[in-house]
Design goal:
The chain is of the alpha+beta class. 43% of the residues lie in helices and 20% in strands. The strands form 3 sheets. Strands 1-2-3-5-4 form a 5-stranded antiparallel sheet. Strands 6-9-10 form a 3-stranded antiparallel sheet, covered by helices on one side. A 3-stranded antiparallel sheet has the order 7-8-11, with helices on one face. Helix 4 runs parallel beside helix 8 and helix 8 runs antiparallel to helix 9. The longest helix is centred in the last third of the chain and has 24 residues.
């Protein structure tokens, strides 16, 4: 655990300040908390006089800004299928959110077609929360980002693989215009909660930005959907729209870029399991 994480008391104080502002007193109790080895965030469920809330600290100011933007502009359409913003202290990089029930989708739950169908329907609601915005030249910019990332990772990835990965992604340059929607950009079971009745909810909008809708298929393509076309089919049924050829080009190039980004992140954060997962995807991409 990173030694420079804020103490639990800071999160309890944020919950107390919110509860006091709504006239519910300032007494709080830590119910549970989550700390990850990467040390990039600290999250707590806190009991207050106004009910349980979730308090989240993010190391990255950019992530805080993105999450607050999404929570204010797009997430309200999801109602109680997502945590809603109650308060934010941007200087302290702490958010107070409504608590939504459920456990993270893991194991068999993460591979349940019904869970994927519901998740697809949730994502469709998020994407429809604002009108799509036309973006010209997206494919060329995505390819340029890949080139930049590949140059930075030259010491970590075999040169032949980088050349082949570039070939795999190159057709995206023909995608001139896309429509940007409010995208989650970290959408998968690790950010889905499933309650005792099987209802799916979504959390963590720290990476949310307007993007082509197919970008939100990236994590699933790299993980749960590998060798599980039934899960992809269930998800897309829930979403209500099938990717067309250009969507597939965008997704393929974005997966290529994300694979390199994950390798870089994993090395920087000493996460060999995450790195191995990304390198497995890389091997599949360059073999096609």
């Amino acid at each position: 655990m990173s030694s420079d994480l804020p103490p639990s008391s800071d999160l309890l104080d944020a919950a107390a300040a919110w509860a006091g502002s709504v006239g519910a007193g300032t007494r709080t109790e830590l119910v549970e908390e989550w700390i990850w080895p990467h040390g990039e965030s600290r999250v707590a469920r806190v009991r207050t006089g106004a009910g349980d809330v979730v308090v989240k600290w993010e190391r990255s100011a950019r992530n805080v800004a993105r999450e607050v933007e999404a929570l204010r502009r797009y997430v309200p359409v999801l109602g109680d299928d997502a945590g809603q913003l109650l308060a934010v202290d941007s200087d302290a990089q702490v958010l107070v959110l409504t608590h939504v029930p459920g456990d993270l989708a893991k194991g068999d739950v993460a591979l349940d077609p019904e869970v994927h169908r519901q998740a697809g329907a949730l994502l469709a609601r998020l994407h429809a929360s604002a009108p799509g915005v036309p973006d010209e030249g997206y494919g060329e910019r995505l390819l340029a980002d890949l080139d930049e990332k590949a140059a930075a990772l030259a010491p970590l990835v075999d040169a032949t693989d980088l050349v082949r990965l570039r070939e795999v992604a190159a057709p995206v340059a023909d995608v001139r215009s896309v429509r940007l929607v409010p995208a989650h950009r970290d959408f998968g079971p690790r950010n889905w909660l499933v309650d005792a009745g099987g209802r799916v909810r979504v959390i963590d909008f720290a990476h949310a930005e307007p993007s082509p809708w197919a970008v939100d298929l990236q994590k699933l393509t790299m993980r749960e959907w590998r060798d599980r076309p039934d899960l992809e089919a269930a998800f897309l049924e829930g979403y209500g729209h099938m990717p067309d050829d250009e969507d597939r080009l965008v997704l393929r190039a974005y997966v290529a870029l994300s694979t390199l980004a994950i390798i870089a992140w994993s090395v920087a954060h000493d996460d060999p399991a995450f790195e191995a997962e990304a390198r497995s995807v890389l091997a599949t991409l360059v073999a096609t």
